[in-house]
């Protein structure tokens, strides 16, 4: 019985090792497949844009409802302004290659 288990384990190791070392060729996409991939990518981008717009609308409705509810209680609520992302700082100018000699 031990011999059979050992042989099965050895065979599984050999099969696994050969599967690991096997290299599959990279798939070459045809023009149709490339076009379909681009179309799918465009559809996904459009769907994400629509979802973002719907999310913004629903957030606005919730905020309006909250403001009205607080106004009914007599509390003044001012929505906080949305900060626009600042542009990245410009890269510092490279240091001058000329050294200024100190006067003696």
Summarize model confidence as the mean pLDDT.
Answer: 80
Which percent bin holds the helix content?
55-70%
Sketch the major β-sheet. Answer: none
Query: What's the overall geometry?
Result: elongated
Task: Report strand %.
Answer: under 5%
Beginning-to-end CA distance, first to last residue: 96 Å
The assigned structural class equals mainly alpha
Multimerization state: single chain
Walk me through this protein's architecture.
The chain is an all-alpha fold. The chain has a domain of 46 residues. The longest helix is centred in the middle third of the chain and has 43 residues. It starts with a helix and ends in a 31-residue tail after the last helix.
Short description:
By secondary structure, this protein is an all-alpha fold. The chain has helices at residues 2-21, 31-73.
